[in-house]
Specification:
With 290 residues, the chain is an alpha/beta fold. The protein folds into 2 domains: 152 residues, Rossmann fold, CATH 3.40.50; 124 residues, Rossmann fold. The chain contains 9 helices and 16 strands. The strands form 4 sheets. A 6-stranded parallel beta sheet has the order 2-1-5-6-7-8, with helices on both faces. α6 links the parallel β9 and β10. The chain is globular. It starts with a strand and ends with a helix. The mean pLDDT is 94.
Length: 290
Amino acid sequence: MSIIVAGPASKELAYNTAKLANIECIDAISKRFPDGEIKITIPEAEKLEDEEVIIIQSTYPPVNEHIMELLFMLGKVREHTSKITLIIPYMAYARQDREFLKGESVSINHLALLLDAFNVSRVVTVDIHSRLALSYIKNSINVSAIPLLAERFKDMDNVIIVSPDIGGRERAEEFAKLIGKDVVALPKHRDRSTGEVKIDEDASILEKIDGKDVIIIDDMISTGGSIIKASNAIRDRCNDIYVTCTHALLLDNAYEKIIAAGVKEIISTNTIPNKSAKVDVSSILRDLIC
């Protein structure tokens, strides 16, 4: 029998997944002490004895606290069973996947080594930022929420899909193919005097946007800077602007800033719970464990 342990960062998602999979879900409870230390308690831990256990815990901010909760959960669960699947819907440190400057720590590699110490059967991520980051994690697989996001927009007609940069074009093309729409990747150039990267608002390719609704897609939104630049560049040419992503961190009042830049709606998944999390990924997690 399988049983899900709901991490403090992903309780609703864990219970949604358990309901779809028709399996039991129990809580891991986190307590914070005045000095900042935390303690994890799994009150029904005896139910885990020799069972197939699925731990679900995202590692969005506060990143390090959620990672420590995850490690403490792993330690406690490992006392009862060796059959552990770890689901980390949002994987922190995935952007730190190489030594960009001499002497830098490759953070995702060291986090992967910590996870490997528990010898889990499988580690599952959702739309991890980097394939290289995934390669550091043993027994790992990545699943995509793009089909679920596309389903949300499938009935829109006069619409074009926009990637805020060339690097995200492959993701945008996958999304566009699912709903049968065209794609534009915003052209950028670097100002030689200031070094600032700007969108070329006069590029002929932007004519494809004229008079259409726009869906800007990215894998994640942190402070929203790229999305705001994209919206500012196209809002006078298009109709409504929608933004969608798998992971909406929305730091430093990013939600309000993006809406103020002319975006009608932000739609993300519940890998990170917040007011934009309107798409539930529990169905793809269910498919993995059933």
